[in-house]
Amino acid sequence: MLLTVYVDDLLLMGTSQRCEAVATQLATSFELVALGPVKYLLGVEVVVDRELSTVFFSQAAYIEELLRRFHMKDCRGVATPEGGTSDIDKERVDATQMNTLPYREIIGALQYLVSGSRPDIAHVVRRLGQYMSNYGANHFAQAKRVLRYLKATKDFGLKMKVTGSAEVELLRLEAYSDADYANDQQDRQSISGYVTMLNGSVVSYGSRKQGLNAQSTMEAECVAMNEGARDVMWLRGLCDELMWKYAVPTLWCDNTAAISLFKRPGKHNGSKHIENRYHYVRNLEERELIAVRHCRTDQMTADIFTKPLARIKFAQFREMLGVGRRDQQGGAVEAEDDRAASVCMVVMFAAK
């Protein structure tokens, strides 16, 4: 069984019998409050469905509270969190206008959603977060658009597929990395996006500026691949710690030039400023710790973390991430069922 700790909250994962036995043993040293089968954890609703073999994470109640708090409860929903074009990168305002808008409060609240169950808004929240100390009416309007999108998708969440040990011998670890070249209008730095998956379910994801000025699309993709490689190596280390068996992790990229740079030996004078990054990925593949592979652009899940997307493409990649409504078929796992091995019991404790 597994036990995770966050401050004074414990999450026990295993069969009901084992969870109860561990809780009883902990009670001899700590004052415990058993909260029963997990329904909410750190503000995230958790629904385990045995028949569909899924775990669904959502924050509908939190979104409802945000809409009330920022007077958007009756707003009209939209299909995407950001438009295809925006001039927020060029806007500059004075402090007087900034003090009248609850911009920082909205972005802070949205960041919690990104970390909990909504990777589909990661890119726009990262972008808006750049202007926490210098924002104006256009930035505020874009932040409200995100709330309008959440209004239309408040019952969306992140779905993970549960795979039993009898169904697969080796776990499948994958990372998708992508980049949007020279995207930022202020400094022309590129944007990296990556998502790491375990057996097709999202585990980790990110959207960030690269911190350097790539000289080409290929270089921007190399930097993004470095971030994807580091993240999947973290997941590999976690699986090692849990003694889970897995196949060689795959790093997916849709840029053939970047892949050839990692696979082709020799020095590349035009790419010296990113040497450490591509040598890191190349070394991992040479040691067979990861396998770099090409995928089609329309299958590049990480594209959603690099730039605004049109409605149809955005919906496609959102679905590939596992973000959507929970299927109503099947039922939640009962507390008595010893097969309920994914999430079972939440406990609060304090030392005696």
Automatic annotation (TrEMBL):
Reverse transcriptase Ty1/copia-type domain boundaries: 2-81
Superkingdom per UniProt: Eukaryota
Pfam family membership, one: RVT_2
Signal peptide coordinates: none
PANTHER family according to UniProt: GAG-POL-RELATED RETROTRANSPOSON (PTHR11439), INTEGRASE CATALYTIC DOMAIN-CONTAINING PROTEIN (PTHR11439:SF467)
Protein name (database record): Reverse transcriptase Ty1/copia-type domain-containing protein
Protein source organism: Phytophthora rubi
Taxonomic lineage of the native organism: Eukaryota, Sar, Stramenopiles, Oomycota, Peronosporomycetes
